[in-house]
Specification:
By secondary structure, this protein is mainly alpha-helical. Helices cover about 50% and strands about 5% of the residues.
């Protein structure tokens, strides 16, 4: 940057996010507690920036260390190790994550049963086994038509 420009900048012209966020601050919201494998965790009141940044980075990673770092920002540094020692599988991990992320955004937004159903639905879609919505399901019996359609069965 130009030295003259730096000198000409008045401190009042600086975008002061410290002051802005201090003005915006209200009472500190409390995170939602959850119990898992005998331990109680308290979710943060909002998604940590580290979680959001790492989520984009590890989106397609299967490396355990990437996942561990991602979840540590939300549940603490030893949570994943504790869960795996207790035998947690990928379905349970997915359900906990869906529930946690939804309830950080809006406490009470998603119940555990809903999180399980949503996880199963997403896995079915990935596997290509998604069921059609009930409104578009094909009828079990087909109405009998009058006569044969022209050309059906004949060459």
């Amino acid at each position: 940057m130009n030295e003259n420009h730096d000198q000409a900048l008045d401190l009042q012209d600086v975008a002061d996010f410290d002051a802005f966020f201090a003005e915006q601050a209200g009472p500190e919201p409390q995170g939602l507690p959850l119990r898992l494998y005998g331990r109680t965790y308290t979710l943060p009141a909002s998604l940590p920036a580290l979680f959001t940044l790492q989520l984009h980075r590890v989106q397609h990673s299967a490396r355990p260390e990437d996942i561990r770092r991602l979840l540590a920002s939300m549940f603490g540094p030893d949570a994943v190790d504790h869960w795996t020692e207790q035998g947690m599988d990928d379905r349970r991990l997915g359900i906990v994550l869906l529930w946690a992320i939804a309830n950080i955004a809006e406490p009470g937004a998603l119940g555990m049963e809903q999180a399980a159903a949503e996880y199963d639905r997403r896995e079915a879609v990935k596997a290509g086994k998604a069921q059609r919505p009930a409104t578009t399901a094909r009828p079990k019996t087909r109405p009998k038509g009058k006569g044969k359609r022209p050309g059906s069965g004949r060459r």
